[in-house]
Amino acid sequence: MKPLLFDDIDQPGLNTLDVYRRRRGGYEMLAKALEMEPADVLAQLQASGLRGRGGAGFAMGTKASFLPKGDMDKYVVCNADESEPGTFKDRELIQKNPHLLIEGLAIAAHAVGANKAFIFIRGEYAHQADILEAALDEAKAANLLGGLDLWVHRGAGAYICGEETALLDALEGKRGNPRLKPPFPAVQGLYRGPTLINNVETLMNAPIILRMGGEEYAKIGTERSTGTKVVSVSGCVQRPGNYEIELGIPSRELIYGLAGGPPEGRAIKFWFPGGSSAPVLPGTDEYLDLPYDFESMAKAGSMLGSGAIIVVDDSVPVMNVAMKTAKFYRHESCGKCTPCREGTNWTVKMLERIDSGEATPMDLDIMASICEQIIGNCLCVLGDSMAMPIGSMIKHFRPEFEAHIEAARERNGLGVAVPQFNRDEHAGPMPALT
Amino acid sequence: MAIDPTRIRRYEHGSRVPGWDDAVDLTKAPAVVPDPATTPVPAELRSEIEGYMARYPDFRSAAIPALHAAQRLHGWCSPTAIEQVACVMRLTPGYLTAVATFYDMFSTTPKGAHDVFVCTNISCSLRGADRIYETMQRVAGSDPEFHVKPFECLGACDIAPMASVDGEYVGPLEEADCTLIVEDVKAGRPVLRDKQLRGMKTAGDR
Fold it and tell me: Per the confidence metrics, is the pTM higher than 0.95?
């Protein structure tokens, strides 16, 4: 497969307007789009079947079609607040090919009839934001944007701002708290106007789709996961990095073929298929042979998410990863809604109890039930994002957690844990309240 | 965001000093929008903030860029810095403090001039980031010029374990690099020139 986004990405000077236009036909597709009717551009995006690359995997064309027609102020916001642990694709794409993002964003803005747009980039990406601003200045000076008012907005370090409604609040100059949905941003978003929010990689595909034609693009990948995907592979692999693949290739080929697999003499214990928010999958053949696409990952009980694979080898105790994951979400929980604020906090406390030997295997059941009760009960998916991986670690590695509890108890001279409380045995109807 | 346990004052036996969760002193009049006549604001800061305010349909959107600018000038989001931003933006200091305390990159307590953010998230810790952080803390933690902080995923797991030194991404780090980082920063040189992310090729071509 010929790469689309990573095609000769290290070409010297690609971040300048001159090279981008001369060698890549840059901004030709924007000029073409501006001559087309917005509805026709939208039709091309819909025909491509492109699904959002930020994590949710929602069809981009469909999302854009939800914006009302008419003359009101509409906005396009690019979500470049890439903070999902294990994800670093947008960083490399922005740093090396910033004009492709600007062109894609301008095409999307034309398709939905917006005349004001923002790129919300995380504050830590200072170097990338500088490059993006320089590219934007060039594009504005050459008068290429066709009346679109576009600005780069730097965030200030908060994972939650990757959530679309929290991002809008941050962009409005507030604390980044998620909003209750509905109304969805497509109807009422930034400054209460209809807003299209897309990930960097999603928008970068727009010029490519116009060049190839939507239907031609849909032939790449699988039927319901079309196109290519830049996958960030990290953790216990020999060649961590970004790899562009056609959706649907076996996961094994990605982890072993491209990223070199785990270090010599080590085996994969488990892996996160889509960033730290995705439920983990064991490193067995059953899972490694699955095609890497949206449907197969969902069917296996996990998700493709932002396309970030974190590999954990058999030298790492699962407790360490669980603790890191839970602490991260506790720190990043915005505190607006209770299940997430309390659930993440108590999960960390219970993991610490396991580590200090004060836990019994019953605590694993309690932890699993906390996770169950967070999922689906929060304003946004941050709470779910902790509950899903932690729940899956307990499910797949329960004996290891139990052994950890016993070892910690013994170390601290607390004796053998009380026998396990069997929930099924004790479960019965709730006594009636009198 | 969870309450930072280190900021809750405790007695020696462990219980919390009364007043740790006091919201505000209700007998005091709330801080109002600062009076421009009595709040001097450096001209450069003022024009930078006004430039940001002109970009957005709602001027309040400039809060984060304005706080970035004030933090650059004052070294941290000090009460003076917040008051100056509040004066230019015609907002209350309370509003801006609420914003500043939400985000990890703003510091509402004094800090060293040079930020060293060591990523200690999953991918980096699988490659020894916790050891790097400990070493960095030992080498520069007590130096008032430095602000060493463990940070959540900085988005550079391909060069794990890594750190962001004054915004410059460097990695993969070894323990010996921590001393070199301190030396480079003190000498005003580019930090770890061979390990900077900015010049690196994509993984497939490395």
Answer: no
Which of A310, A344, A345 lies closest to B123 in CB terms? Answer: A310
In the three-class reduction of DSSP (H, G, I as helix; E, B as strand; rest coil), residue B60 is classed as helix
CATH of the domain at A60: 3.40.50.11540
Same domain (yes/no): A100, A134? yes
- Chosen for mutation from B126, B133, B197 (greatest number of chain A CBs closer than 10 Å) is B126
Same domain, A165 and A24: yes
Q: Compare all CA atoms of chain A with the CA of B62 and give the residue at the minimum distance.
A: A173
Find the largest Cα–Cα distance for chain A. 80
Report how far apart the first and last C-alpha atoms of chain A are (Å, whole number).
69
Which CATH number fits the domain that encloses residue A333?
1.20.1440.230
**Interface membership of A81 toward B (CB under 8 Å):** no
Residue after which a domain boundary falls, among B83, B109, B135: B109
CB A302 within 8 A of CB A278: yes
Quick one: B100 and B127 in the same domain? no
For B14-40, the pLDDT digits (tens) are 788 887 777 767 787 778 899 999 999
- A156–B64 CB contact, under 8 Å: yes
B170–chain A Cβ distance below 8 A for any pair: no
User: Would you say residue A428 has pLDDT above 70?
Assistant: no
**Does the structure show a pLDDT above 90 at B5?**
no
Q: Cα–Cα distance between A102 and A136 in angstroms, integer?
A: 7
Question: Are B193 and B118 in the same domain?
Answer: yes
Cross-chain Cβ contact B117/A124 below 8 Å: yes
Residue B3 has a pLDDT of 64
Domain membership of residue B72 (yes or no) is: yes
Q: Any idea which of A68-72, A177-181, A415-419, B180-184 has the lowest mean pLDDT?
A: A415-419
Nearest residue of chain B to residue A171 (CA atoms): B61
- Residue A137's identity, in one-letter code, is D
Nearest chain A residue to B150 by CA distance is A328
Residue-level pLDDT at A422:
55
* Closest chain A residue by Cα to residue B153: A85
Instruction: Note whether A186 and A67 are within 8 A (CB).
Output: yes
Residue B5 forms part of a structural domain = no
Residue B185 falls inside a structural domain: yes
Q: Does B62 touch chain A (CB under 8 A)?
A: yes
The pair of structure tokens assigned to A276 is 């730290």
How many angstroms away from the CA of B150 is the closest CA of chain A? 11
pLDDT confidence bin for A2, thresholds 50/70/90 = confident
Question: Domain containing A283: what range?
Answer: 228-313
- B51–chain A Cβ distance below 8 A for any pair: no
Q: Assess B97–A contact: CB distance below 8 Å, yes or no.
A: no
Domain of B62, CATH number, reads 1.10.10.1590
Please write the tens of the pLDDT for every residue from A360-370. 888 999 999 99
Same domain, A60 and A109: yes
Cβ within 8 Å, pair B105-A156 = yes
**Whether A122 and B58 lie within 8 Å, measured CB to CB:** no
The DSSP letter of residue A256 is I
For chain B, what is the domain count?
2
Residue whose C-alpha is closest to residue B139's, from B180, B110, B104, B93: B180
Crossing angle for the helix pair A200-212 and A89-96, to the nearest 10 degrees: 60
| A290 Rama sector, left if φ>0, alpha if ψ -120 to 50, beta otherwise | beta
Q: Is the pLDDT of residue B171 over 70?
A: yes
Q: CA of A270, closest CA in chain B: separation in Å? A: 13
Domain span at residue B67? 31-109
pLDDT > 70: percent of chain A: 96
Strand partners, A242: A232
Q: Is the ipTM of this complex over 0.95?
A: no
Chain A residues lying within 8 Å of B164, measured CB to CB: 124
